[in-house]
Amino acid sequence: MNHFKILTLNNIAVEGLRRFPRDTYEVASEIANPDAIILRSHNMHDMDIPDSVAAIGRAGAGVNNIPVEAMSKRGIPVFNAPGANANAVKELVVGSMLIAARNLCNARDYVKALTEDGDALSKAVESGKKQFVGFELPGKTLGVIGLGAVGVEVANVALSLGMTVVGFDPAITVKRAWQLSSGVQQVDTLDRLFKVSDFVTVHVPLMDATKGLINADRLALMRDGGVIINFARGGVTDDDAVMNALNSGQLHAFITDFPAARLIEHPQVIALPHLGASTAQAEENCAVMVAENLRDYLENGNVRFSVNFPETIIPRLNGCRITIANANVPNMVGQLSTCLAKSDLNIEDLLNKSYGDLAYTIVDLDGPVTDETIAEMRSIEGVLALRNLGKPLS
Fold first, then answer.
1. Helix/strand/coil for 389
2. Between the N and C ends of the chain, which has fewer C-beta atoms within 10 Å?
3. Each residue of 158-170: b (16+ CB within 10 Å) or e?
4. Ordered domains of the chain (ranges, CATH)
């Protein structure tokens, strides 16, 4: 019977770890030659990742802390948990809009600084409250950048609060489009979104195309007194541009989950310690989702919710299974099939998918594959990783 070792680099919710049966899995924070790694925020970029690792699972959505490109070159899938923390982030965005609209943080600081008592305290409270007059959300416009799992939930709940909602996502999936309320207006350009928005919330990964996405030119398009909310990644906003917009009065507030030293002390900045997915429910949901997908990959080779591999799923029958990750080049499947045919192995099922420069194949066979055949297939130019899974675990 196969036995798998899982290395944890962070504290992972217990409910997720329970998805690994103890008779076939060993899970520990220190373990030699792990088959897979599961983590949350641990930085893996300077880590020596053992040759034994076949998969990496991030119990969350963002994977900036994982060297994804390097793993792709080794034929290692990186899994994440998109949508598992969507409700947690949605609630934080809604809370942030309310906090900014009603000036709650500054009002709280004002009251905490009062030293009076009795009637004098009551007088100070009443005389000070006029500094913190706010506004209500109905009738205001929220711009949502990125209509993935989180963005769709934010857009839908903002509609229910009486806001006008506009969204921008040229790559919205069919699944998310179905989930999005028909009341959300989609715009073709970011400039248009900023021009019509009182609030802008961003829900995109950090990459070259999104770095500095919220910049001086776009902030200048916003209505005076606007609010920017960033629970995506720190580099998505140009902090210098945000600071200038706050100082000029163009922006009323900036709420971010990614504090920068020059912004923290600004009275109109609400900086939080990366709380987006910090609820017990979200952490559990993320851990369960990534653990189940890691287990399915290790035992069956199936790929769900990987950021660098194509979704590839074949139900497991009783045949012997091998999986191959390779460079996406012509005649690769043909070469692999030739090796199998030379060994008198019949292919019962085969699924080949590609994702950019990488391709992934699951092959079910009518008999076991010899070590010699495995070695021959691994020697094919372009093969990055080959796993012999044998028969299904009982």
1. strand
2. C
3. bbeeebbbbbbbe
4. 1-85+277-309 (3.40.50.720), 86-271 (3.40.50.720), 310-394 (3.30.70.260)
Q: What is the pLDDT of residue 276?
A: 87
Q: Looking at residue 25, what is its pLDDT?
A: 97
* Secondary structure class of 166 (helix, strand, coil): strand
Q: Is residue 267 exposed (0-12), middle (13-18) or buried (19+ Cβ within 10 Å)? A: exposed
Q: Binning pLDDT at 50, 70 and 90, where does residue 54 land?
A: very high
Cβ neighbours of 323 (radius 10 Å): 23
Integer Cα distance of 168 and 189 in angstroms: 7
Backbone angles phi, psi at 255, to 5 degrees: -115, 125
Dihedral of alpha carbons 110, 116, 121, 126, sign: negative
Confidence of residue 394 (pLDDT cuts 50, 70, 90): low
Contact 312, 302 (CB under 8 A): yes
